[in-house]
Amino acid sequence: QQGKNSAGGLTGKKVLISAGPTREKIDPVRYFTNRSSGKMGFALAEAAAAQGAEVTLVAGPTDQQLEAKNIHRVNVVTAEEMYEEMHRYFPASDIVIKAAAVADYRPKNVFSEKMKKQMGPMQLEMERTKDILKSLGEKKDKQFLVGFAAETTEPLRYGLQKLRAKNLDAIVINNVATEGAGFEGDTNIVTYVNKEEAQDEMALAAKSEIAEQLINCIVRDMKDEVL
Ligand code: CTP
Ligand code: CA
Questions:
Q1: Which has fewest Cβ within 10 Å: 21, 192, 193, 208?
Q2: pTM here?
Q3: For the domain that residue 195 is a member of, what is the CATH number?
Q4: Domain count across the chain
Q5: How far is the CA of 15 from the centre of ligand 1 (A)?
């Protein structure tokens, strides 16, 4: 039995994490994006590195900086770029955590000149981006795959649906409607749920603290799989 803050639980393991939003361009001065500071994903990267993992962090546009020097950071902008980079590092990874807030849609046409406003309302046609996490779930062999779910209603029901639909080993459910949870803040409240539907509820805490607890849950569940 490992202690709560045990270092070295991930020595020799390759961990791949995605963080932050993606940004989908409309014209040279405008884009669509999601609310996401990147803090949760960056905290997970730091927590995994602190346990001895070799970490690759695929980061959408964010102001976050890494403190640990031994984390390999790959910057991306769009969902398509994030898809490419996640698939590049996926095959060699042992643990993959998708904390990023990926845009579900992007403008169907990207205009090379700035769009001028019209007199009346305007309509913009949007198309779906690729579901990166789902595509990783389809490709999974040895990887322990962890998704996030941002929900405003019935978080557990929707979270479990995503766990099954995307062939995940665990999901971190984030009730973004709760005070102290979600986006720009330094704190979060989450529930970690594994394939067996065992739930670990994590009360309001700093994202760094939540990240440590999540990494400990992952290490525990990976051990159970090996045995
Ligand atoms: N995700 C992804 N690629 C997308 C959309 C989502 O990889 N194009 C990942 C997110 O990184 C997250 C998980 O899927 O780990 C769940 O994201 P979420 O937005 O909560 O769920 P969706 O499946 O997009 O469903 P919806 O937004 O309709 O609730
Ligand atoms: Ca979504």
A1: 208
A2: 0.95
A3: 3.40.50.10300
A4: 1
A5: 20
